Amino acid sequence: MTTATARKPATMAQALGRALRDAMAADPAVHVLGEDVGTLGGVFRITSGLAEEFGDDRCTDTPLAEAGILGTAVGMAMYGLRPVVEMQFDAFAYPSFEQLVSHVSRMRNRTRGAVPMPLTVRVPYGGGIGGVEHHSDSSEAYYMATPGLQVVAPATVADAYGLLRAAIASDDPVVFLEPKRLYWSKADWDADHPDEVPPIGKAVVRASGTSATLISYGPSVAVCLEAAEAARAEGRHLEVIDLRSLVPFDDDTVCASVRRTGRAVVVHEAAGFGGPGGEIAARVTERCFHHLEAPVLRVAGFDIPYPPPMLERHHLPGVDRVLDAVARLQWESEWTEGSAV
Fold this sequence. Notes:
This protein is of the alpha/beta class. The protein has twelve helices and 14 strands. The chain has helices spanning 12-26, 50-54, 66-78, 97-104, 107-110, 140-144, 157-169, 220-232, 251-261, 276-288, 312-315, 319-327; strands spanning 8-11, 30-34, 59-61, 82-86, 120-125, 150-152, 174-179, 186-189, 204-207, 212-216, 238-242, 245-247, 264-271, 297-301. The protein has a seven-stranded mixed beta sheet with strand order 3-2-4-5-7-6-12, sandwiched between helices. A five-stranded mixed beta sheet has the order 9-11-10-13-14, with helices on both faces. A two-stranded antiparallel ribbon has the order 1-8. Helix 1 packs parallel to helix 7 (157-169), helix 3 (66-78) runs parallel beside helix 4 and helix 8 (220-232) packs across helix 12 (319-327).
């Protein structure tokens, strides 16, 4: 049993590395492959030490050819292995997209379930690290729009470990989006007795409230929690939902919250037009229309290619933009926790 004394500060990067190690130790079918994952331990050192412990035949450095990496992983998965592919950066993954759409996402359907596709694609994504072009994209909408893929984005150290273990164990392909700016975030965590593995497709309430619901995932969850803390001083108590999984989507948890609060704001780093927030807003509106006191609003990245580092603080959704959206939800009168909407 996990005890408070056993917990100590750990980073998300450490939790991800531990998840890979534990999965490889538990199942010899788990193989890690990607550019520099072996000798170097990956750009962000997530795979550091795996080649030394399990050998370079299970933690394998590949050529710089993303389509080839993912194509190789498809063959490995078809023959019973559980490959875990690392794409160095979000926008580096685009050359492999044809493999993802044409084969990874379709194989199980194409074979009427005879050939599972237990393949995990790890994609460091999002901004906040001062990355140059092709190093800070928020590409989740592309994956969400591809039927046959599961899409996961952890926001905490514990979920990074648990969701990656769940992804590797899945017989369906998972695009595992790792928020780069959270790699060095810390939380008390017991690596030897990790928390229960959360199921893919189950959201969680990170903060309770009755004034409005903030719906987010990955790096924007922390922004929403900070906004909720600031809003409390104004007498507005915001509920924060961490989706954890974009596909499958947890309609039950999200809609239960929105029906209670009557108002919702979706927050993410990806562009607003054609972004995840549009789909989420549509789902909420369809299911909660008669409970809504205002339209579902979105706070997102601007509809531009990702900007250079010096401008990213203007591009990324921040607390002020979230609070501005909350203010635009148009309360008819000021009220406090426990009063009727």
